[in-house]
Write a structure and sequence with these properties.
Blueprint: E1 2-6, H1 18-24, H2 32-44, E2 49-53, H3 63-69, E3 72-76, H4 86-97, E4 103-106, H5 125-136, E5 142-144, H6 147-154, E6 161-163, E7 191-194, H7 197-202, H8 205-215, E8 219-223, H9 226-234, H10 254-257, E9 261-263, H11 267-274, E10 279-282, H12 285-293, E11 298-302, H13 305-314, E12 318-320, H14 321-326, H15 333-339, H16 343-347, H17 349-362, H18 368-371, H19 376-383, H20 402-434, H21 447-468
Parallel strand pairs: 1-2, 1-3, 3-4, 5-6, 7-8, 7-10, 8-9, 10-11, 11-12
Helix pairs in contact: 2-12, 4-5
């Protein structure tokens, strides 16, 4: 049995409560990460191959164990070549440098503006060079998202670079059934919209969302950030993203108050819910890929190179966000739906999958669609599991949802109490042995209780008061 270690926040088979998923940040700050890591898990799992999640951590000291226990390390990545990711990229390079097993990168991308100007990436060029060199010492080629990243690496002198897109769209192998179920959208159509904080705050997406919200009563915003989810579930406004009040996941936004916002901590529920929608659009590439996997037409509002190159490669319907923001009518869902041409996306999918398959073969990886059951066992196992629904806004009248929140907080306080008791015992033992305090024990994390009061106290009081009226 071949064993593959997969860089991912969690195994697709791990069922966590919403509270635990948010506490551990298994989405690695962005739920889109789980879309492509779950797809990679399914694709690589065959009767002869076991796939194990590494929990997204990069523990350089674990290299010897990884060499001993696994036959390959597979690394699905998104926009890893960006300045804010450089520290993590360096740690990943250090780990890879200590591995003796094959290391295969699936779909890494560079991020810059729509002009494809790589100048902002110049300061981190050495880090990118060292990462690619380490990977190519352990694989036949490196898989990139699209044309911009391919040229970016070739300009550095790397030749073993292949455009393979993102594994997320290959979740069902050669099959991709996306079609328009309506001849045109009406005012009562079910529409999903998505977007990042930067697109809302700096690129004009807030005006597009506001206008769409006013016209389409069945609009739902699907967020992806961990801060989005914590705002919905805990009303936690401690993250800097909370300053963007125009984001529908903010408690002050009308869509929040109307309950028209979701965030998903499992791709399976995300995709399943989008099956009932008529159309999806917005600046989030994996938010719209989730819709396409559900068979729902989607249009991406491209705001940077990472979304643009992927849309061009897969022929996903798209328009430039900067142009759409200047003309709000250009981003009206009725117009976007009418203009969305799905023929290239669907018609060219099998050829793109074959290219992806050849990349896997070249790098010694088998896939379930060629060497297995096409993912049937994976899907059967997933259907037997009960995943939590999408995270909803915590409105003042939502008393029924308090039990799970308080139950989880109570368990955390209990664990902390037990941990603190053990610490006190160990401290007393050390004091007796040395007759003095040899170390400072970390302050007990009593902030959990105080944070619980701060986070839930005010909404709870409002909820109870409204219940008495």
């Amino acid at each position: 049995m071949k064993r593959i270690l997969l860089r991912s926040g969690k195994s697709p088979y791990d069922v966590l409560s919403i509270e635990e998923a948010l506490h551990r940040d298994v989405i690695a700050t962005n739920a889109g990460n789980l879309i492509f890591s779950d797809a990679a898990h399914k694709i690589l799992e065959t009767p002869e191959t076991e796939v194990v999640s590494n929990g997204i951590g990069t523990d350089v000291s674990a290299a010897a164990r990884i060499n001993e226990e696994y036959d390959a390390f597979v690394v699905p990545l998104a926009n890893a070549f960006r300045p804010s990711f450089e520290g993590r990229l360096k740690r990943l390079t250090r780990l890879i440098g200590k591995l003796r097993i094959p290391v295969v990168v699936l779909g890494v991308g560079a991020q810059t503006g729509l002009s494809y100007d790589p100048s902002r990436l110049k300061p981190m060029e050495q880090s990118v060079r060292e990462f690619c060199a380490a990977v190519l010492d352990r694989s036949a080629s490196i898989g990139v998202r699209g044309e911009f990243t391919e040229q970016y690496l070739r300009d550095m002198g790397f030749r073993d670079v292949e455009v393979i897109g993102c594994p997320s769209l290959f979740m069902y192998g050669r099959d991709l059934d996306v079609r328009k179920r309506l001849p045109e959208l009406a005012a009562d159509a079910r529409i999903a919209v998505n977007g990042s904080h930067s697109a809302v705050q700096k690129q004009g997406l807030d005006r597009i969302i506001s206008r769409t919200h006013a016209r389409y009563p069945n609009l739902c915003f699907v967020g992806q950030n961990i801060s989005d989810a914590r705002q919905l579930h805990w009303r936690d406004l401690t993250d800097p993203n909370a300053r963007v009040t125009a984001m529908p996941t903010h408690p002050d936004h009308p869509m929040y108050r109307e309950g028209k916002v979701r965030v998903y901590v499992d791709p399976v529920t995300w995709i399943d819910d989008l099956r009932s929608f008529d159309f999806s659009f917005g600046s989030r590439i994996h938010g719209n890929i989730a819709a396409l996997l559900a068979g729902t037409p989607a249009t991406v509002l491209c705001g940077d190179s990472r979304t643009l190159e992927l849309c061009r490669y897969f022929e996903i319907p798209h328009v430039r966000l900067d142009k759409a923001a200047k003309d709000p009518e250009a981003a009206d869902p009725v117009r976007l739906y009418a203009q969305a041409d799905l023929s290239g996306l669907v018609g060219g999918h099998a050829e793109r999958f074959d290219r992806f398959e050849r990349f896997l073969d070249k790098n010694g990886l088998r896939n379930t669609f060629t060497h297995g059951d096409g993912g049937a066992a994976f899907e059967e196992r997933m259907r037997a599991l009960s995943f939590p629904p999408g995270v909803r806004p915590w409105n003042d009248t939502d008393l029924a949802s308090l039990s799970s929140r308080f139950g989880w907080l109570h368990s955390q306080v209990t664990e902390l109490t037990q941990h603190n008791t053990q610490l006190r015992r160990e401290l007393a033992k050390a004091q007796k042995a040395k007759q003095k305090a040899a170390a400072v024990v970390p302050a007990p994390a009593a902030s959990v209780y105080r944070r619980a009061r701060r986070v839930v106290g005010r909404p709870l009081r409002r909820a109870l008061q409204s219940g008495k009226q």
